[in-house]
Each structure stands twice: as C-alpha cells, then as structure tokens.
Input
Amino acid sequence: MGALEEENKKVVTEFMEVFSSGDVNGILGSLTDDATWWVAGNIPGISGTKDKAGFGEMLGGIAEGTKTGAITLTPLAFTAEGERVAVETESYAELKNGRVYNNLYHFVFTVRDGKISSVKEFLDTEHTTAVFVAP
Output
C-alpha cells in the first residue's frame, strides 16, 4: 500500500474518532465544503444523499436521542486504493428511549486533500429503523 492510501486511512480513522466523540463541528470540519453523505435504504430522515449542512442537521438530531450525545464507530477492517477507503465498521450507542443501537456497516469514503469528500454508508436498515424510527 502506498503513502497516499496510508494517509487516507489515517484521515478516515481520525474521522471515526471525532465522530465517536459527538463533536458535530469537528465532524463537519473533517469534510470538504462540497462533501456528500449517502445512506442506503428508505429510512425516513436518514436515507438518501445529504450535503454537508444536511448531514450536520441529521447528526444533531441523532445525537440528541443518545445518552452520550454520540454514536461510537469502531473500524474493523480497511481496504484502501487511491482516494477511496472502504471500512467495515461497528457502531454502538445507548439511546434515551432505552434501545441500544449496535449496527454493522460498510463505508466507502473518498478522501481529497486530507478531507473527506464523499461517504457511502451501507448498513442494516431494519435495525436502524427499529431503533430510531419505530414507535
């Protein structure tokens, strides 16, 4: 693996650490101004493509529902090629509604000049809906 791939893996690892802290401004600061975040499925208010501002709004809403103000992301395995970094990831959060969010993901990050320019998030949409959306 080349230096670019190693650097991009580091950017993504640091992003996941900031994400896990719940620091929305820090999270958004890791993204390029034109960044997009896409989430698989048809989860109301979550799925689809969001720009940087829309992603920030979604994060704020999700964080409010957690006991710690954050969802912890733990990277499990990386594959990097050029500007793309794929990461198998596990999440964990205890919600104020008493539910536990513990999902598995496959993220594909695109890193440009040390910042994340796009994210594709593949996840168990049924689990997300059951924890965040279901009554």
About this structure: The chain has a mean pLDDT of 95.
